[in-house]
């Protein structure tokens, strides 16, 4: 059994090109003289919800082309050559229309390779992307955070919120006690039992 494994990072100097449409957009990123290329296909569609018609966009397809004869990441490939890995029935990065998608957490998208002996996984992290409704170059709209980031943000802020609420409850309790103590201290206690009165005579 021969196993090959390669991690292929996306370099900063990668070439990018794309096509922006009203309901379909495409982003292509390539590097090392097109030995590696990834294409991301986006769809914008409307959905009926309880609040009426809502538009969403999503990543609908991913295609990754890689060359195992390129020796930067594949040292001794068994069957060198160009291969393509694609996603099937993908619905990822789902975002309300008019917003950008942001996710710091790592997400995995599994791809099926043309070389059936290879499995390919696309790992995404620190992503900020907006394929539709772009108002200006290099300016993102309000972000829609992925569920993992939302949960992490809640986990970070929840102790702070609970601490503030607890502190507020303590302050209110002390204020009520202080006010009650002041009011009861100024009142003269009248004995209810007549035997406690001093006889005047």
Automatic annotation (TrEMBL):
Bilayer topology: Single-pass type I membrane protein
GO terms for biological process, alphabetical: establishment of protein localization to organelle
Highest taxon of the lineage: Eukaryota
Coiled coil residues, start to end: none
Alphabetical list of Pfam families matching this protein: Lamp2-like_luminal
Membrane-spanning residues: 158-179
An example Gene Ontology CC term for this record: growth cone membrane
Residue intervals of the Lysosome-associated membrane glycoprotein 2-like luminal domain: 11-134
InterPro entries for the chain: Lamp2-like_luminal (IPR048528), Lysosome-assoc_membr_glycop (IPR002000)
Main location: other
Keywords annotated in UniProt: Cell membrane, Cell projection, Cytoplasmic vesicle, Endosome, Glycoprotein, Membrane, Signal, Synapse, Transmembrane, Transmembrane helix
Cell compartments where the protein resides: Cell projection, Dendrite; Cell projection, Growth cone membrane; Cytoplasmic vesicle, Secretory vesicle, Synaptic vesicle membrane; Early endosome membrane
Similarity field: Belongs to the LAMP family.
Function: Plays a role in short-term synaptic plasticity in a subset of GABAergic neurons in the brain.
PANTHER family in UniProt: LYSOSOME-ASSOCIATED MEMBRANE GLYCOPROTEIN (PTHR11506), LYSOSOME-ASSOCIATED MEMBRANE GLYCOPROTEIN 5 (PTHR11506:SF35)
Protein name as annotated: Lysosome-associated membrane glycoprotein 5
Native source organism of the sequence: Ceuthmochares aereus
């Amino acid at each position: 059994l021969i196993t090959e494994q390669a991690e292929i990072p996306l370099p900063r100097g990668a070439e990018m090109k794309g096509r922006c449409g009203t309901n379909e957009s495409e982003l292509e990123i390539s590097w090392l003289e097109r030995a590696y290329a990834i294409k991301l296909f986006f769809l914008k569609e409307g959905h009926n919800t309880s609040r009426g018609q809502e538009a969403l966009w999503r990543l609908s397809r991913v295609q990754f082309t890689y060359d195992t004869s390129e020796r930067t990441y594949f040292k001794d490939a068994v069957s060198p050559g160009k291969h393509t890995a694609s996603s099937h029935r993908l619905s990822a990065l789902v975002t309300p229309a008019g917003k950008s998608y942001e996710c710091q957490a790592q997400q995995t998208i599994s791809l099926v390779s043309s070389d059936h002996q290879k499995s390919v996984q696309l790992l995404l992290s620190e992503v900020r992307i907006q394929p539709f409704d772009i108002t200006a170059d290099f300016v993102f709209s309000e972000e829609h955070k992925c569920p993992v980031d939302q949960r992490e943000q809640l986990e970070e802020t929840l102790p702070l919120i609970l601490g503030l609420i607890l502190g507020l409850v303590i302050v209110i309790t002390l204020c009520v006690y202080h006010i009650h103590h002041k009011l009861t201290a100024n009142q003269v206690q009248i004995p209810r039992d007549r035997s406690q009165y001093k006889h005047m005579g």
